[in-house]
Amino acid sequence: MEKQILQPRFKDSQHFKDFWTTGNGKQLIDLSGAEVSFDHFEKFSKYFYHVDEIGDEVVREVYFRKSYPEASREIEGYIRNGVSENDDVPESVKRLFNQTQTIPDWLDLNLIRSGAELCMRCNLDSLISLRDYCLIGGYDYAYLNKPLIVTEALKKGAVKRLSETLDFWVNVTRYDALEVHKKGYEFAIKTRLIHSYARLSIRKHYKNWDTENWGEPINSWDMMATYIGFSLVFMHSLKKLGNTISEEEEKGHFHLWKYVGYLLGIPEELLPDNKKQATEYFYLWTSVQPSSDKDSVLLAHSLLNESLENPILKYEFQRKNLRYLHICCTWYLLGYDVCKRLQIPDVPLKKGFPVTKKIINTIYDSTVSRDARIKKGNKDQMKVLTDYLRVTQNSNFH
């Protein structure tokens, strides 16, 4: 059967028009100077049906022929020791590591360092942005969430999902983390193969996958949008919370996520260099995504209630207060329309905490040295990650 040519089918929908004329999309255009149109739609839309074939082949040749722990140990050996053309390993493994061990000629290590410093310098605002804007905002795109739903991510629980996302993000945003064989590089390769494993499992076991409407599971275009979440959307959130960002940090931030995307097997022409490109690419992708459905609401509420389930805080009143603060930030960062669609609870004085935070950030940025902020941010972020890993690796935690 001939595959239908993809159209920007939701471009006339109210949620699309509102986002790009009055909502956060309008703010992104104003922030970036983007010139949005559908002129290049076909150049990008083909990637809705495109996947990382190299990663998929590694999973077929390594993971599907051994036990999962045995395959994981084998891949870890390749990551830490490297792979050469003469090694007796599957051809797919050679192809994967030939790509990821080859440093692209555009890579600038000084820019990567500036991007990492921005992530660390903004301390807990970085984690608030990831959770209350990037992650929960992504749930508003119904088709993007389908792989999470069919792989039963809800059953695993939000604490575990958040811990895994935090583990990945922290480890790819530290100094020198993305050098070949280092920790961030390892996380990128492992995440790439987890995506391939999930995609092949969905194809095999989930017969009702609607490829025409949803695209391939974890397709390259959806991956692009996810990583624009980590770059453009994340940066927008930091600015909303009152953080100042230098031109060098901004360039570095996009450069860092371009390289992470490269390691993850996202085609290079989908990886934006700056906020203008990112906004223009994101505009096209959102035109094939309907707004929230019932699965979106379930995912959003699972994340909101994570604070109540998570035993990091000892007392119930602390957990309830943390949930309240996250709800306040979600309303502030995502805006009325998205929060209504995701059925985010309305709470009193919801602007109080984020507005106070914005004022404090303005003072903090102008009175504390950049180096001191980077050092403290790194320490505080590592503490949060350690707490999450301690909780989720406890065998009694479900």
From TrEMBL:
InterPro entries: Lcp-like, MPAB/Lcp_cat_dom. Residues 156-346 form the ER-bound oxygenase mpaB/mpaB'/Rubber oxygenase catalytic domain. It holds the Pfam family MPAB_Lcp_cat. This is DUF2236 domain-containing protein. It comes from Chryseobacterium caseinilyticum.
